[in-house]
């Protein structure tokens, strides 16, 4: 087999990093990658080729849809043998969803796929985009003494921290430290040197062949509990035509109201084949339904634990599993297993 090129494919989807201010309206608008390169002449200083692939037109991440995740998987799969790593420039709003989805869709990944972006456009003097992009490229090319990728995972790099993609949530719309991995340690920290947390990074053991997945089923809903939630709200959501799965955002360690109608509605939905996954509304911590009676009742109603999953990861994992035609019981079983390091069992 011919040696892999020491090069990176930079995939530009859009987002704030590639926006410029409209002089007339003051609104931020997308511009193309050639203009982006003009604002980052430092890219020329890398002593390896950086090729680019651009979404045309560039898209705001709030418009991101599963078919775009499929497109990204196609681009990575089609170019997999030609590059050492991949850097995806992406808007911050849905970056954690895309990173989570790709972690499931790229089975057998043994190269870095790093998502990054910025809070300020690249043309702005104080932009965080340059640092995020330059460090992401450096991480994408990093190898150990055996020549294997240091970080063979789908990750998000933002504000000096490299995080596992399916553990990450956007927590701030204003500050540069926009993302946090609450339930899993960061994989690397970038200061003067990039310090890798090798113990936490997915072990790159035997060589794997990349197996791309494209099947997704979006018949999923998110239901967030709050004090005073009415039965008709629960009934309406659970009664959505074609619904196959619910991510139920509960209180604390997976607790919910003990109202008779609430438990009955969940029992009925589970019996009809709707998969209900319990994740906590808390930023950090995990669901432990056996801990309190309120959680135990959910367990009895057929609700499955989401453990310490992020909401973004739970949603995309359900789409992934449902897309592959598993039965409700098979989906429930696989939600209780780690596919790509997304939960701690």
UniProtKB/TrEMBL annotation:
Annotated substrate binding sites: 61, 92-93
Active site location: 16 (o-isoaspartyl threonine intermediate), 16, 92
Its EC number(s): 3.5.1.1
UniProt KW keywords: Hydrolase
Gene3D superfamilies: 3.40.50.40, L-asparaginase, N-terminal domain
Single GO term (MF): asparaginase activity
Positions of the Asparaginase/glutaminase C-terminal domain: 219-335
Enzyme class, UniProt record, top EC level: hydrolase
GO biological process: aspartate family amino acid metabolic process
Spans through the membrane: none
Similarity comment text for this entry: Belongs to the asparaginase 1 family.
Protein name according to UniProt: asparaginase
Organism of this sequence: Bacteroides finegoldii
Taxon lineage: Bacteria, Pseudomonadati, Bacteroidota, Bacteroidia, Bacteroidales
């Amino acid at each position: 087999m011919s040696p892999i090129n020491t090069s990176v494919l930079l995939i530009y989807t859009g987002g704030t990093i590639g926006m410029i201010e409209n002089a007339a309206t003051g609104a931020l608008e997308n511009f193309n990658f050639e203009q982006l390169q003009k604002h980052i002449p430092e890219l020329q200083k890398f002593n390896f080729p950086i090729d680019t692939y651009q979404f045309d037109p560039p898209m705001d991440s709030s418009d991101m849809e599963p078919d775009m995740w499929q497109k990204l998987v196609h681009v990575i799969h089609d170019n997999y043998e030609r590059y050492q790593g991949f850097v995806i420039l992406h808007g911050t709003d849905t970056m954690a969803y895309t990173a989570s989805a790709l972690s499931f869709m790229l089975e057998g990944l043994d190269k870095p796929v790093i998502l990054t972006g910025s809070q300020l456009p690249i043309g702005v003097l104080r932009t965080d985009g340059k640092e995020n992009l330059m460090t992401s490229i450096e991480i994408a090319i990093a190898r150990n003494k055996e020549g294997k990728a240091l970080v063979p995972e789908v990750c998000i790099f933002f504000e000096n921290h490299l995080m596992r993609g399916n553990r990450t949530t956007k927590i701030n719309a204003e500050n540069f430290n926009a993302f946090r991995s609450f339930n899993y340690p960061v994989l690397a920290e970038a200061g003067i040197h990039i310090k890798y947390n090798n113990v936490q990074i997915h072990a790159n053991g035997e060589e794997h062949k990349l197996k791309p997945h494209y099947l997704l089923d979006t018949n999923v809903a998110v239901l967030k509990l709050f004090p005073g939630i009415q039965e008709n709200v629960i009934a309406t959501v659970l009664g959505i035509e074609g619904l196959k799965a619910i991510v139920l955002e509960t209180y604390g360690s997976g607790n919910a109201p003990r109202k008779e109608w609430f438990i009955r509605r969940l029992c009925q939905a589970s019996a009809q084949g709707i998969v209900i996954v319990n994740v906590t509304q808390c930023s950090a911590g995990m669901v432990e339904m056996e801990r309190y009676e309120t959680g135990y009742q959910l367990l009895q109603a057929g609700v499955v634990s989401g453990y310490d999953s992020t909401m973004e990861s739970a949603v995309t994992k359900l789409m992934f599993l449902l897309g592959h035609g598993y039965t409700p019981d098979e989906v429930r079983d696989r939600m209780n297993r780690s596919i790509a390091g997304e939960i701690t069992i």
